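Look at a sample.

——
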Amino acid sequence: MPVLSPQQNAYAQYKNNKIMTASAPELTLMLYDGAIKYLNVADFALEKKDLNKANTNIVKTEKIIDYLRNTLDMKYPVAQDFENMYSYISRRLVEANISKDREIVAEINKHMHAIRDNWIEVMKANHIMVKDA
């Protein structure tokens, strides 16, 4: 395991603390942000023809979407809407990874930004503090 510099260690502790103290809505927002970050990295990797890096980051996005799908509480009607959305995104991620298609990655990224932005509005409407947004 690599040794972290004092700055890297402090940042790692900050990130861990941020996650450990976050509310469920904040964690969901962090997951959306993570998916967007990985899609951006995948797009850049595809542009540079780094197929391994693109694959790795598309798979990371798939894992986030899978996690979000698994946490849905289907007793609420809106959960089915999220399931449909996540299911579509999952299919498109597989297609993007198979074809290494930047247009599909861009489409998914657009959807993830819209979902994230809507989530922030829901948080604000419910008086949930949005940190770093």
